[in-house]
Design a protein that fits this description.
Layout (H helix, E strand, L loop, with lengths): L10 E6 L1 H5 L6 H10 L5 E7 L3 H12 L4 E5 L10 H9 L3 E3 L1 H13 L6 H4 L3 E3 L3 E3 L8 E6 L2 E6 L3 H18 L8 E7 L4 H11 L7 E6 L5 E7 L2 H18 L3 E5 L6 H11 L4 E5 L5 H7 L8 E6 L3 H8 L3 H7 L4 H15 L3 E7 L14 E8 L2 E8 L4 H20 L7 H6 L7
Parallel strand pairs: 1-2, 1-3, 3-8, 13-14, 13-15
Antiparallel strand pairs: 4-5, 6-7, 7-8, 9-11, 9-12, 10-11, 15-16, 16-17
Length: 439
């Protein structure tokens, strides 16, 4: 039952599956659930993992439902004999298992779309606890289950991550909001930041915002490449102070602030895609040291064909010449990792792809290949358009994969800043630049 002495509801999580217990599957679903709850200002108080054993499932559902306001059960809704969640739920609720007409209709439509004949194991997924409600599964065959036991609202969800993701964001999170106790009040604002680390950001805030309101909790979630900044209000009074607080933060962060997060965080590539779509523009890439990672990140996102038609991975010097028209004299005189080469790569890609914007990279990813003049971690990046092509040389020491990921992220940020008309010099250029930046 809801504990009105606490401002936050008691949310618990039960994971089921032999694969989780043996380590054959790494649990990423609980992280997904926790992150989506965080968008509501909520957190998981307890998490339990059990094997596919009926006695264990029944015992844990009974125990957890006696203390939780909301219980999310993940896994065990499939067609095989070890998928026992529905049966365990029915035993705890002391009801029979029966064929649910909506679940059956869902299965029939699911199989019809795939030209697939339903068999007996599939039909097991329509056998649910009597009196339960179903949660639509937009992708898979197994519907979710919603029941109230011991005054605890229970949501049973599929173990397939893509199916769980949609079910959470489209149905369950909204239902939790509708059923929150009146005493609960949270407002969470989230932002994605690039180019300032946690400690540097905290230092800036400490120095420039000495009267930070106590009613607003400041939090960080470090990730690569975008840092997440979270402001949590736990009272109506704190929420009134939030707009002024956000305005001050925006002033401190400047253009290091990439975007506000409405629901799920967006990738850097998705932000670039959105800006290019707004500008009705396209982009191409000419990559050496990043080995196609920039193009790969762009094309991971749905809708990328609207802004990206082609990219070029020109690792060898002869390919830089044959594919992008880089003059061999430039390569011989200045080398592959040089301003002259990266600008020539960018111009060649713009001409070949007939795109509006370009990103080009040439560097030394390591761990070998560095010199005293050009140590491992040196990179030249060129970005912009035919009439506004810019370049910069940075030193980014670290592992090979770190270097490639960081160069990719910085490349996206430089294009982002160009597209939003930013005149601010980012912190990473102030700290990492090792050469002048002539046009």
């Amino acid at each position: 039952m809801v504990d009105n002495s606490s401002n936050a509801p008691n949310i618990q999580l039960l994971l089921t599956g032999n694969e989780l217990m043996t380590g054959d599957i790494v649990d990423s679903n609980s992280a997904m659930i926790a992150q989506q709850l965080l968008y509501l200002g909520l957190h998981i108080r307890k998490k339990v993992t059990v094997s596919d054993e009926m006695t264990d499932l029944v015992s844990e559902i009974q125990h957890l439902s006696q203390s939780a306001d909301f219980l999310i059960i993940n896994g065990g809704l499939g067609p095989t004999v070890d998928d026992l969640t529905a049966q365990a739920l029915a035993e705890v609720a002391k009801v029979k298992i029966e064929q649910h007409p909506q679940a059956l209709e869902h299965l029939q439509q699911w199989s019809k779309r795939r030209n697939f004949a339903l068999n007996k194991p599939n039909l097991k997924q329509a056998d649910l606890p009597a009196g339960c409600d179903i949660i639509d599964n937009d992708l898979g065959s197994a519907v979710g289950i919603k029941m109230t036991i011991n005054d605890c609202i229970i949501y049973c969800t599929p173990g397939v991550p893509s199916e769980l993701d949609v079910m959470l964001s489209k149905y369950i999170m909204q239902d939790i909001q509708l059923n929150l106790p009146n005493v609960h009040h949270y407002k969470v604002s989230r932002y994605q930041v690039f180019g300032i680390g946690e400690s540097s950001l905290q230092k800036l805030i400490n120095e420039q915002y000495t009267d930070w309101p106590k009613e607003i909790e400041l939090g960080f979630r470090a990730s690569m490449p975008l840092l997440e900044l979270k402001l949590t209000c736990k009272s109506f009074q704190a929420e009134k102070e939030l707009p002024a607080c956000i305005k001050r933060l925006q002033s401190i962060l400047g253009d290091h602030l990439v975007a506000q997060i409405d629901k799920k965080p967006l990738s850097f590539a998705k932000h670039i895609q959105s800006l290019l779509k707004d500008a009705k523009a396209t982009i191409t890439t000419a990559e050496s040291c990043t080995g196609g990672m920039i193009a790969s990140e762009i094309t991971k996102e749905s809708g990328s064909s609207d802004i990206f038609e082609s990219g070029y991975v020109t690792y060898a010097n002869r390919i830089k010449s044959s594919e992008l028209g880089v003059n061999e004299a430039i390569l011989q005189e200045h080398g592959a990792v040089s301003q002259q080469t990266v600008l020539a790569m960018a111009k060649g890609a713009l001409a070949a792809a007939s795109s509006d914007y370009v990103i080009a990279t040439a560097g030394i990813a390591g761990p070998n290949g560095g010199t005293e003049e050009k140590p491992v971690g040196t990179v030249w990046i060129a970005w912009g358009s035919e009439n506004n092509l810019q370049s910069v040389c940075l030193l980014l020491p670290g592992s090979r994969l770190f270097f490639q990921r960081y160069v990719t992220a910085i490349s996206f940020d430089l294009i982002r800043r160009l597209l939003i008309g930013s005149a601010q010099v980012p912190l990473y250029i102030k700290e990492r630049q090792v050469s002048s930046n002539p046009r």
